[in-house]
Amino acid sequence: METSTATTGTPLKKKSGPQVLDGSDIMELVENEEVFSSFVDHKFKEFDKDSDGQLSVKELQPAVADIGAAIGLPAQGSSPDSDHVYSEVLNEFTHGKQEKVSKTEFKEVLSDILLGMAAGLKRDPIVILRIDGEDLLEFINGPSYEADMVSIFSQIASDDASLHDFIIKALEKLTVDQGMPPSSDSWVMSNIVEPALQLWNGDDQEKPVSQETFLEEFKKVAEHVTQNLKEQPVIVAHSENTFDGSGIKRLLSNKFELDKSLNIALENVPKDRNGKISKEYLRVVLDLVAPSAGLPPIGAIDQIDNVVADVFNMINGDDGKMVKEDEFKKLLTEILGSIMLQLEGNPISVSSNSVVHEPLESSSSLLQPSS
Predict the structure, then answer these.
(1) CA gap 173, 153 in Å, rounded
(2) How far is CA 233 from CA 159, 269, 369, in A?
(3) Are 168 and 189 in contact (CB under 8 A)?
(4) What is the distance between the alpha carbons of residues 135 and 227, in angstroms, rounded to a whole number?
(5) Which of 18, 82, 183, 201 has the fewest CB atoms inside 10 Å of its own CB, making it the most exposed?
(6) Mean pLDDT score across all residues of the chain
(7) Please, where are the H alpha helices in the chain?
(8) Which backbone phi and psi does 76 adopt, to 5 degrees?
(9) pLDDT exceeds cutoff 90 at 151
(10) How many Å apart are CA 261 and CA 292, to the nearest integer?
(11) Dihedral (CA of 91, 92, 97, 100) sign
């Protein structure tokens, strides 16, 4: 789940420590009625190109794009999944029907979206890390280098892999804790890793690799990487999420919110002429309820998907039988309760590191005052 934005490849002023985005600035904005009203007035005027006092769907598009950028989505048109989120944000404003949105409606929806963003950041803060080679240099010259890299060597050992392949795989294993941005990112690979490999030009790159050769040659490449990072620091958004069932517990303890979430999720689920629903839609509805229960979307985190699969097996949730709506709700509540118990017993922690490619100040104009 997961990302603020900042610049890659542009030297930034070094800060005393990592920057933490915890939603407090957003909360401060929305909760100050006078400041937020002024903010909305400026934004509404900025988007209302024809000055008719209402926002058309076309005029709303920049607002939707700004919201997407602010929550870390890729640009519209780049992914079906993110495009679906953009569509849902637009529907929040138009309710899927209206052609025009008033300033009051715009303010209400924007407030809800921003408060949701703030709550998410408070629950799972994002830490903005500036990776400039210093930590990586400290690692490769430090006391833990040999032991850590021997462990990595044993994990990636392969009879037919070249030294070049070993080094690339080893760089992928390093983390931000060791001063390495994710090399799976295409920008990092093209601008940091590949130039370092070109400067290295190690001997016998295609010959069988010994542990001793690996340790020696990897350090040479890593030194080039540190130099590239010094010249082109990389900004990484780091987040850590722990799923311990507490979000589900909060939802289940509030019957009003639970019923509301289930009713909204069931609005577009097909029913037969007797009002019955197929159990094959349990996963669909669970996915719709997931945000309210503090769960990730199905398919986002393998460990959570495994828990869900275990629960569905226990209750025969995939048998496709038709059930009445009340029984469907009861089954879904049971599923949520079982997932909660499993997560309480064995919490799942997930961390993510995303290289971000837009200036922090310009990636989204959503939270910037208009001139």
Answers:
(1) 10
(2) 35, 48, 28
(3) no
(4) 12
(5) 201
(6) 82
(7) 24-31, 33-47, 57-70, 80-94, 103-123, 134-140, 145-156, 163-173, 186-188, 194-200, 211-231, 246-252, 255-266, 282-289, 302-314, 325-345
(8) -55, 140
(9) yes
(10) 7
(11) negative
Q: Residue 312 contacts by C-beta under 8 Å, 6 or more apart in sequence? A: 282, 283, 318, 335
Cβ proximity of 14 and 235 under 8 Å: no
- Report the 10 Å Cβ neighbour count for 348: 18
Q: How far apart are CA 120 and CA 305, in angstroms?
A: 21
Beta strand pairing status for 322-323 and 277-278? antiparallel
Tokens linked to 149: 């890299």
Give me the torsion for CA of 23, 26, 30, 31, rounded to 10°. 50
Residues in the chain: 371
Give pLDDT, residue 152: 94
Distance CA 57, CA 101 (A): 8
Contact 112, 36 (CB under 8 A): no
- The 3-class secondary structure across 276-294, one letter per residue, is CEEHHHHHHHHHHHHHHHC
Q: Indicate if the pLDDT at residue 25 is higher than 70.
A: yes
* Least confident window among 18-22, 24-28, 33-37, 166-170: 18-22
Would the pLDDT of 133 be above 70? yes
Burial readout 122-157 (b: 16 or more C-beta within 10 A, e: otherwise): eebebbbbbbbbebbbebbeeeebeebbeebbeebe
- With a CB cutoff of 8 Å and minimum separation 6, the contacts of 19 are 127, 128
**b/e for 57-76, b at 16 or more Cβ within 10 A?**
eebbebbbbbbbbbbbbeeb
- Output the CA torsion sign for 74, 77, 83, 88: positive
Q: If you compute the radius of gyration of the chain from its CA atoms, what whole number of angstroms results?
A: 25
Burial-class residue 48 by CB neighbours within 10 Å (0-12, 13-18, 19+): middle
pTM recorded for the entire structure: 0.56
Lowest mean pLDDT segment, chosen from 20-34, 182-196, 279-293, 335-349: 20-34
